[in-house]
Each structure stands twice: as C-alpha cells, then as structure tokens.
Write a structure and sequence with these properties.
With 220 residues, this protein is mainly alpha-helical. The protein contains 6 helices and 6 strands.
Length: 220
C-alpha cells in the first residue's frame, strides 16, 4: 500500500507563510514515506471546504515550486480540470513539471465540475457530454505529443490547434509518461463513454419516473 497526501486548505493563509508552509508540508510527507503529494486544480476555495475568499494558490505553479523542495515524492493534481487549458498547453505544462522534477509527475485529468469558478473567471463551461469528449480528445493529443509519432494529430473537434502543435512537444518528458485517469479501463475513451452513458441512463430513468408520477396524479 502507498500513501498519498492531498493538500487542500491554505489557511490561516498569511501571504508570507503560504510558500514555506506548503514546502514544509510536502517535505514532511516525503520524509514520512508518502509517495504522492497532490494539489487541487482550482483557482479559489470550494464551498465544500471553506470560503471562496480563503487564500488559494494556483496548482501547477505550486507544484513547480515543490519540485525544487522535494526529491522523491510524486507531484500531481487531483485532478486537472480539462476545461482550464488547451491540450497543447496542458501537455507543455506537464512536460515542464516532469523535467524540472526529474520525472516525478503524472497527468491526472477529469471533466471539471466547479461551475461557479468557471463563470467567475470567464472559462467556458460546456455541458457534461462535451466535457467528457474533451477529456478523450485531450488524452489523445497529449499521448501523441509525448510519443515518437510525428504524423497528423487527432482531429480536434473541441480544441483549436493544428499540426504545428507537435513542435511544442520538445523537450520530451524524462521517461515513459504515466497517465493516471479516474477510469479503470485502459482503452482510450471507452470508460469515459461508459461513464457518460450511465449518467444519461440515470437521468432518463429519473425523468421517466417523474412523468409516470405526473400521470398518476392526473388520473387521481
């Protein structure tokens, strides 16, 4: 069994203490034997945890900071929101962190959910189906950028970009890049589609129950 530490609360949050406290926590986790240290890919605190006005640091900048303070622990997001970055920008960000940390990062990605944050920052927040399709497309683009395949990139229906995006792949990650996804299935996109189908099935069943209940009330 491996232990990971998820750092989500920056309180009490005096600006001059944010960096040292974060670094000390990651170093302590590493020294205690934890194998992964994660941050949340958000831009202000979530209501489930605290208040939106609580101090909150941007994740990938913070992971780059931690790369200089740690030696062995894996640094990652839990998890990257697919809506926040174009695939090529995300691949470049992950590669930069991978090289600066000497291979101690992973790509963890999800469909994003915090609509309040999107609206506040002007980030488009597509419907759930489209966000899951964005996850599949992003994984395909990142995988090819990290491969030796110099052919045309996958058709980008949801993200802008062209074949020149391949040039941004240099330098390559330091080793075989590990991609962690919430899905258990390793076939690209299959688990995403299955999850989406299950979600739609539950919605349809709920709608059918509502219609049936309305019909029963009319009959009575």
């Amino acid at each position: 069994m491996e232990l990971g530490i998820h750092y989500i609360d920056f309180l009490p949050g005096a600006p001059e203490k944010l960096g040292p406290t974060l670094a000390q926590t990651a170093v302590a986790a590493e020294q205690a034997g934890a194998t992964m240290f994660t941050l949340a890919d958000h831009f202000f605190q979530m209501e489930r945890i605290g208040d939106a006005h609580d101090p909150f640091l941007e994740g990938y900048t913070s992971l780059g900071f931690l790369a200089a303070h740690t030696k062995t622990i894996t640094l990652s997001m839990l998890v990257t929101g697919v809506t926040y970055r174009y695939p090529g920008i995300l691949a470049k960000t992950i590669t930069t962190l991978d090289i600066l940390s000497q291979g101690r990062t992973t790509l963890s990605i999800g469909a994003a959910w915090y609509d309040r944050e999107h609206h506040a920052l002007g980030v488009p927040y597509p419907p759930l189906r489209e966000r899951f399709e964005m996850v599949e497309e992003t994984l395909q683009i990142c995988a090819q950028m990290w491969s030796d395949n110099d052919g045309p990139l996958p058709r980008q229906a949801l993200h802008p970009g062209g074949d020149d995006l391949r040039a941004a792949a240099d330098p390559a990650p330091t080793g075989t890049h590990r991609r962690r996804r919430r899905e258990e299935d390793t076939a690209p996109g299959r688990a995403v589609r299955r999850h989406l189908e299950q979600h739609e099935r539950r919605n349809t069943q709920a709608q059918n129950r509502s219609v049936a209940a309305a019909l029963r009330r009319r009959r009575t």
